[in-house]
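Entry:
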Amino acid sequence: MFIMMADIQLKEGAEDDFKKWFSESNGVLRNFPGFISRRFLKSGDGSYRIIVEHESKETFISMHNSPEHEKLHPTGHSFMSAPPARKTYTVSAE
């Protein structure tokens, strides 16, 4: 399994609109082969993280490079006050 985690900073007052966009965009992205899940998290200290799980790095890259993702990407970033800090992982053990 391939996992991408992104720490994000939302603009003041943008959380509700971002959550709406996030849920709507999941409706598009979940149709891609290899998609497992995509979640928006908020910690107790008010920080945010996105977690995307895919069957493989290849299926993630295919989704990430798709016209559908290219269309969704600018809207998601419009709610952010800084670019996301991304890290990728592969599952080593379960």
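Residues 40 and 50 are 5 Å apart (CA to CA).
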